[in-house]
Amino acid sequence: MKFLSFRFEDKLLYGVKVKREEAAWNIVRIHKELIPNENVPETLLEGIQSGMELQETVRKCIRAAEESDHVSRYKVKFDDLVWEAPVPRTPKNVMCIGKNYRDHVLEMGSEKDIPEELVVFTKASTSITGDNALIPSYEELTDQLDYEGELAVVIGKRGKNIPEKQAIDYVFGYTIVNDVTARDLQSKHKQFFLGKSLDETCPMGPYLVSKDEIPHPHQLSIVTKVNDEIRQDGNTADMIFSIEKIISTLSKGMTLEPGDVIATGTPAGVGKGFNPPKFLKKGDQVKISVQGIGTLTNEIGE
């Protein structure tokens, strides 16, 4: 299923994409009007916390809507909604893996920088924004605003000290993250946090796709375009550390919770990697497409 969170009529809602339509099922409205006695989560995060049972609950909602006399009442056209990140506020900071694609490591440094262990940093949860949202240019703070297209994992159940062989059992699904970065702040402060955590610099979405629809997450193309110019053209097959390794390592001594988001790293082609660098400026449009998920689109605003 392709889940999404969105705003409609000034309310934060969630649903799933209607097949072969540019619209979403309004699960909250279906619940309240058609099956009020069913236990249906009010937000997508609550749904993730309920586990894979969410899919069966949603199927019941869709059946009820399709059998009603007013099917269109329970759909929201994409033109009429405001996209939110699938998880608008994660339980903890967005966890990110750096230097997880060899070619990206080389464009930013040299062979000696290829890691032997996970490079982990975080983005503040207040940096999260949705598809089609404007990303502030922050011209007063940086002149090196950069993009990073990434596959992100959304955790589906609580776990600690998770063995690699069981790691995928803890995944709810997958989404796209643009790890927007102020490179100069990243260098100035040595630690990545400030350069990675400016408000609205973690676009996420447009969908959260349940893991049953992506059985081979290490075989997905990742393409980033800036103003329709292809900048990144990679594949998750080229990860240095697998999703299983990432989840297992992060969970050693630290509890992972439903709704936690892990960005798994970016392939080569970031702005800083060009000579001269190609940093983002006002009016630029960034599109990140990940096979099986969709395209995350954002523009650089004021």
UniProtKB/TrEMBL annotation:
<dbReference type="Pfam" id="PF01557">
    <property type="entry name" value="FAA_hydrolase"/>
</dbReference>
<feature type="domain" description="Fumarylacetoacetase-like C-terminal">
    <location>
        <begin position="94"/>
        <end position="300"/>
    </location>
</feature>
<comment type="similarity">
    <text>Belongs to the FAH family.</text>
</comment>
<protein>
    <submittedName>
        <fullName>FAA hydrolase family protein</fullName>
    </submittedName>
</protein>
<dbReference type="GO" id="GO:0018773">
    <property type="term" value="F:acetylpyruvate hydrolase activity"/>
</dbReference>
<keyword id="KW-0479">Metal-binding</keyword>
<keyword id="KW-0378">Hydrolase</keyword>
<dbReference type="GO" id="GO:0046872">
    <property type="term" value="F:metal ion binding"/>
</dbReference>
<dbReference type="InterPro" id="IPR036663">
    <property type="entry name" value="Fumarylacetoacetase_C_sf"/>
</dbReference>
<dbReference type="InterPro" id="IPR011234">
    <property type="entry name" value="Fumarylacetoacetase-like_C"/>
</dbReference>
